[in-house]
Structure formats: C-alpha cells, structure tokens
Write a structure and sequence with these properties.
The chain has 438 residues and is an alpha/beta fold. The protein is built from twelve helices and 21 strands. Strand 8, helix 6 and strand 9 form a beta-alpha-beta unit. The structure holds ligand LLP.
Length: 438
C-alpha cells in the first residue's frame, strides 16, 4: 500500500488525510469529493522554491494554475512565494479576484481572445507569453488603444519529443503551440516585438510536455533556448531578460511511475544554462519554471461512495461509483492510471480485482480498471482515488448534467470547503426557453 505522507489509517481502519477521517468527510460533505491536503501543497511549493533559490540568483517559480485554478489554492501557492501562470480569461479573473498581485501573473494560450489580452494589458500583468503572429498584431492594437505597454515573451517550438502520451506533448514540430524555432518564425517574432513601441521583448519560453520523468529533454531545451538567445544577441544586439522552461515534472500515480526529486531537473537546467551562458558570454537572465501537476497532483484525493457492484462471471467485477468523467476525465481521455483504496476498510487485504466505473452513460467512463479492493467491498463503502489534485477539478464538466463536486482543504485535522458542489439550479441556470416554446 502506497500512502502519501499526509495519509494514515486510524483505529477504525479508515483512511485519514492530514488527520481528517475520509469516511467522516464523506458524511459531512457528500461524494464525490475532492480533498486537497494543504501541507503537501505547501511542501511541494517549498521544494521548488528552495531548489530554484539554491541554483539561481534570479529564479522564479510560476504555478501552472491550469492544473487546479481555485482562489484558495492560489492564495496558498502565492503565500509560498510562487507566481501564477494562467491560460485563459477565466483563470486570470480568478487570480485577480483572489487578490493575486498582477505583477505575479503571466498569461499563456495558443488562441488568446481580444478580451483576454485587454484584461492582461489593463491589469498590467507581469507578461504575456505570445504564441503566434496574429496574436502579436492583436497585442499591439490593444496596447495602442489603451496606451499601455506590456512585456512579451515568445514561446518557441523546438521539436522535442518527450515520449509521453501524444495529447500532452507540446514542443513537437507538428503541434499547435509556439513559434517554430527552425523555420525562422521565432526569430521573425522577435523582430516584430523589437520594432513595437508597445510590446517590450522580455524572454523566451518553451513547455515541452507533461508527466516527464527523464531530465535529459530539459538539457536539450536549455541548448535550444540559449542558442536562440545568442542568435538574437549576435544579430540584433538584444539581451533577453528571462528564460522560461515550462513545467512537466512527473509525479506518482501508480507504482509504474518513478518520479525523481524535482531538484534533479533544476540542477541540470542550471548547469546547462550556466555553462552555455558562460561559454557565449551571455549575462545570466531570470530563469523560471512552471510546475503544475508536481505542485498539486499528489496533494489531491477523490472520495467516492460505492453505489453498487456488478459481477460479470469470468469477465470482471464493476464497482459503481458516484463519480465519473464529469469529475475525472483523464482515464477516459488518456487511459490514465490511478491507485485506489477502500478508504472505509483500509486494514482489509485488497486482493480482489475490481474496476471502478463512473455513472456517466458511456462504457469508457471509468475511474480505474482492475484495481485491488477488499473481498468484502459493498454498497456504501468509501473509495479513495489518489493523486487527483491536478487536471481533475480543472477538467471537470457537466456531462449528463452531473454537478461538479465540492472541494475541501484539509490540514491537521481540520477541513474547509474551498469550492462548493454545483447545484442542479446552477446547472440549469443558463438554459433559456424561447417564448414560442412556452
Ligand atoms: N506551462 C505550460 C505552458 C503548460 O502548457 C503546462 C501544461 C504547464 C506549464 C504545466 O505542466 P505540468 O507541470 O502540470 O505537467 N490535462 C493533461 C495535462 C495537460 C498539460 C497542459 N500544459 C493531463 O491531465 O495530464
């Protein structure tokens, strides 16, 4: 049994997270329920912050809030000294509403809208990470209209293959993100920004993908980034202020995953960048990273109720949970794997393979396939699925008009709601019946 550092088994044989009995949490808040352990979030933030401060005089950690964008979570990560990376108007709005200082926020996105750019410029956020030529046009126009300047970093696509699921690779040649590095587009973008009176050329960015266990691709990336910066220096006599290496540091979901200490990645980025900068006589810029999953993933656990069991002889046993692809779409979308336990019977041997199904009307709506559960698993038992902090709540939806579940923050025996469960009224709120149908 793999228990995260905040997890224990209490005298009733129940799973506890940071001192909170998960069966009690189910009674108090209902299920499905996202549970986030505050101490784990904080300790992950500290690990990154400490490592960046150790290796760089000018290092920055920007939390990739697409992993979990929620006001309370943003308060926690920024109180640990991290900035916030947002990728939409909704995420930016949430961050501003949470009181995050705009100079700690950067805006990503491969298809930014005018509204999003206006929001970024009006609020004078730290920088916009530009992704295409039409976007540069739009930023220029918006800034001109508002008579405001903004920092612009350009995202490059250097054709790095990280051997991960196709859907989470973001720097291959055939990919929608960034300016091509080898076809001269990235350089062209630099020239455009450099000519502008409204865009201040700030830095270079690349995010190569997600759930990466091997540090080598970051060395390759560092080479591309510094080469590109040197090209700009040699040809245009401009120095960039920031090299941003994106996120992607892998975490544990099952025993098939062997995540490395995050410091290993940072150490290698540091060594490569320092060597190359020294060799090329390039002044050390700000170096930043954007971890998302590695901050919040293992801090999250989802609790479910067992609504029913269905044994199909010689095939498999399905356990009907009250969750599904409306609150965790990753299994259906990527074939993601999870570790699950019967939180109400932790001391019983988990030796019967059970597949935990969602309640949506799709055969592929599964939480996990073939996971060991106690022989005695029965209706109203509680199931805990681990490592659900990243990209679960943030990818939640209302398929089959299921409400997005509540999220609670636990810490040293206390629990606090940080996102309310949607109500049916909320779900139907935007529906309109035109008069002629009434
Ligand atoms: N920076 C940029 C520009 C990104 O696009 C991403 C993630 C990150 C940072 C953070 O990556 P992380 O450290 O979380 O791996 N929905 C997928 C993951 C998509 C990741 C998208 N970009 C999943 O559930 O696995």
């Amino acid at each position: 049994m793999h228990l995260n550092s905040s997890m224990e088994i209490n005298e009733k044989g129940h799973l506890t997270i940071s001192g909170c009995d998960t069966v009690e949490l189910k009674k108090q808040y209902g299920t499905p329920l996202y549970v986030i352990d505050e101490n784990t979030v904080r300790s992950n933030c500290k690990k990154f912050k400490t490592a960046m401060d150790k290796y760089f005089d000018n290092g920055r950690v920007m939390y990739a809030s697409k992993a979990l964008n929620n006001k309370a979570i943003l308060k926690i990560v920024t109180s640990e000294g991290l900035g916030v990376d947002v990728v939409s108007g909704g995420e930016l709005y949430t961050a501003l509403q949470a009181g995050i200082s705009p100079d700690k926020i950067e805006l990503h996105g491969n298809s930014k809208t005018e509204e999003e750019i206006i929001m970024a410029v009006e609020n004078q956020i730290y920088c916009i990470i530009a992704d295409g030529f039409d976007e540069l046009d739009l930023i220029e126009k918006v800034c001109q209209r508002l008579n405001k300047k903004i920092n612009v970093t350009i995202r490059i696509r250097p054709n790095i293959d990280i051997h991960a699921h196709e859907a989470i690779q973001t720097a291959k040649m055939d990919c929608k993100f960034g300016f091509g590095l080898f076809d001269g587009q990235a350089f062209e973008a630099v020239k455009i920004i450099n000519k502008s009176n409204f865009m201040a050329l700030h830095g270079v960015h690349c995010h190569i993908g997600s759930q990466i266990f091997d540090e080598q691709p970051f060395e390759e990336l560092a080479n591309h980034i510094v080469d590109f910066a040197c090209d700009i220096k040699n040809n245009l006599n401009i120095l960039l202020d920031e090299f941003n290496f994106g996120g992607g540091f892998g975490v544990w979901y099952t025993d098939e995953d062997s995540p490395k200490d995050f410091e290993v990645f940072i150490k290698l980025i540091n060594k490569t960048v320092i060597d190359l900068c020294n060799k090329n006589n390039y002044p050390m810029p700000i170096v930043s990273i954007e971890p998302g999953r590695s901050i919040i993933g293992e801090a999250g656990t989802t609790l479910y109720n067992v609504n029913g069991l269905k044994e199909i002889k010689d095939v498999r046993t399905y356990c009907m949970s009250d969750g599904g692809m409306f609150e965790n779409i990753r299994t259906a979308l990527y074939g993601a794997k999870y570790t699950a336990y019967c939180a109400s019977k932790m001391n019983e041997k988990h030796n019967k393979l059970v597949s935990i199904a969602g309640k949506c009307c799709e055969s592929g709506d599964m939480i996990t396939w073939d996971t060991p559960m106690p022989e005695s698993l029965q209706v109203n038992d509680t199931i805990a699925v681990l490592t659900t902090g990243a990209y679960n709540y943030s990818m939640a939806n209302n398929y089959n008009r299921n409400p997005v579940p509540a999220m609670v923050l636990v810490k040293n025996g206390e629990s606090h709601i940080i996102a309310k469960r949607q109500t049916y009224e909320y779900i139907a709120l935007n529906d309109v019946i035109p008069d002629y149908l009434k």
